[in-house]
Amino acid sequence: MQAKVYVSFKKDILDPQGKTIHNSLHNLGFNKVTKIRQGKFFEINFAPTLSREEVEVTVKKIAKEVLTNPVIEDFSYKVD
Asked: Alpha-carbon torsion 75, 4, 77, 2, what sign?
């Protein structure tokens, strides 16, 4: 089983890298892009012996304790 975890800044946190990318896109002629925010993506594979419920509990714990800074970042995940 595999989980995909998406980490991004909370909406009220400034994203300087996203702003830089946005400015670069405008310089390249992509003027209809109104906003872009950058983030991180993780694929985590689990042993086939784990149940979906066990994977979900584990991936939430990993995301909260290791992959994110809960003060400034949010996460979402999907288990396949």
From this structure: negative
Give pLDDT tens digits for 27-66. Answer: 999 999 999 999 999 999 999 999 999 999 999 999 999 9
Four-CA torsion 45, 47, 53, 58, nearest 10 degrees:
-60
User: Number of C-alpha atoms within 13 angstroms, CB side, residue 78?
Assistant: 4
- Asked if 52 and 79 count as a contact pair (C-beta separation under 8 A), the reply is yes
Number of separate helices (H) and strands (E) present in the chain: 2, 3
Half-sphere exposure of residue 58, counting CA atoms within 13 Å on the CB side?
15
Quickly count: other Cβ atoms within 10 Å of residue 46's Cβ.
16
The band of 2, judged by pLDDT with boundaries at 50, 70 and 90, is very high
Strand-pairing partners, residue 77, are 5
